[in-house]
Specification:
Largest sheet: 4 strands, antiparallel
Order of helices and strands: HEEEHEEEEEHHHEE
Strand content: 15-25%
Number of strands: 10
Helix content: 25-40%
Number of helices: 5
Number of domains: 2
Low-confidence stretches: 15-20, 151-155, 200-206, 224-230, 252-269
Amino acid sequence: MLPIPAAFFLFLSFFLDQTTAYNPNKSPSRNAVLLSNIQTLTLHANRKTSHRRVHAIPQLTCVGPSKRICSLYTPDVMRCTNQGYDYDENDIQWTCTAELPPEFKLGSTEVVCEGYRDSNDPWILKGSCGVEYRMLLTEEGERKFGYMTGGALDDRSWAEQLWDFVKGVGTIFIVMGSFIALMSYCNRSTINNVRGAGGWFGGGGGGGWGPPGPPPPYDYHGRYTKTETWQPGFWSGALAGGLAGYGLGNRRSSGRRTVYTPSSSGSSSAGPSNWTRESTGFGGTRRR
């Protein structure tokens, strides 16, 4: 057993070592580097970052504005250059460049790195940086792929779209069924009232005590011909109204969006051009 002074000094040295290890001015490891000391980053598609505390991420990640636009083209290489810091020397600003077809241009870019000890650590893990970028359309891209830049409907899964369709059809049948039941009830009530008021007697009132006259002839054609000729119109009108209501609701749920028609020079199945030119995006830094 260690004497008390020796144990105390051992504990104190251990505590000082831990304090020194978390000193932001001192590198905690050979694999740690200050982000402000990194001048350039070269990032590749289909590659992952290094990782220590958290999971690895892709070096290049498209974050919008639409999944369908992101799927059209992925740059092979992106190079980001340190442009200095903003308000804090650890908040580095970057310009990132990549070769893109003329239909696309880089929007905002954000360099994301793993803090060595935590997400606030100024020291980052070497090789842990990736870029999240936005892929925007140029004027040429708008003419060719602008129809893909719709609202929320653009990124809904097939299951969500199917469920919206089922809800719409269900609403149509509920409305139609309720209307048919109401019309049937009103028609039955009208027939009963006519029979009760007229009866099967000669004039329905007053006079002598003589025998009643024969019942009036029952006109089958005069009473039902109008209903039979009206029924197809009712079905077609109800169906058209229901479909119109569903279409209007579906349009409101997906938000206002501009519909583009592909130009004659391209089609919805046409891909990006074969030639590329340099495009630049700007952004800051985020630690994970």
